[in-house]
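User: I'm new to structure prediction. If I give you an amino acid sequence, what do you actually give back? Let's try with this one:
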Amino acid sequence: MNTKKNSHYQFTHELIQQTMARLLEKNELKDITVKKLCAVAGINRSTFYAHYESLYDLWADIDSLLRVEHIRAFDEANVHFSNYMSEDGFRVALNFVYRYRHFYRGYLERLSSSEYLEAMFHEIWAAETAPKDEDCTDSLYHYIFTLGGAVKVVERWLKHGCKEPVDTMAKLLTQYVTP
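Assistant: Good question. You get back a string of structure tokens that encode the predicted 3D arrangement of the chain. For your 179 residues, that looks like this:
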């Protein structure tokens, strides 16, 4: 029986996710269909639907995986939480967003982009950079202002095809985070 704990089920589940991730590196989200994904993965549509109710369910799953991978990218680059809003930190974040730009651009069309990007970046920055004490009004508002501005900059960059190089964007964002 093919259950969620079965190794074949797990293998197929990961195959679907990996295939979607590969397709997202070169295709817009709106251009990926269940039929296309199944053809590339070499599986039947019924197999896909045994794992996911729809592409939206798969996208949500991919989103969760990308959030974990995004944090791992900071670890691999030796960028500590306290340094996430530095040029190096922005470079890591922007390289990651650029790598999966098709996913993020498509996903943002479906969701409220500001809320989505804010949640994505807040997970990373809040751990160490967000003020812990609600009484530190200046730091709290600086953090909120910086996060909101960075979100809007990344949102615009994505919507306009990531034309500016990552290094240019990282330097630009770094200029605005200095208190």
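You can read the tokens as a compact description of the fold. Here is one thing that stands out. The chain is about 70% helix and 0% strand.
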